Amino acid sequence: MDSFAVLQAVSHDRSELAATYRHANKELCRLRAELSERTVQLLELRQEFDRWRRRQVQNQCVVCLDAPANMAFVPCGHLAVCEACAGQLERPICPVCRQTSQSILHIFVP
Prior knowledge:
It is built from 2 helices and 3 strands; from the N terminus they run αββαβ. It is mainly alpha-helical.
């Protein structure tokens, strides 16, 4: 094989390599953009989950820490206990502020 043929083969290989590199670089840019979009989506989902979790903890019974709080004390207004725990209270005293309550209201939370 003469040197001209070798140079042509090398030039052809170089052209193929450059085309492969351009294709790979284009795919890498596409994947980076997709990763950025998904990262933003993940951050938004995490924030939404954190807000949901805080609402769940805020509406949790302060006595059993299991059931959602759906009973409010009058007159202080603390929505603090579930129906089961409210039924077990000996005296109507709010577990949050310790104020004697006149009554306990069942609150229907959506």
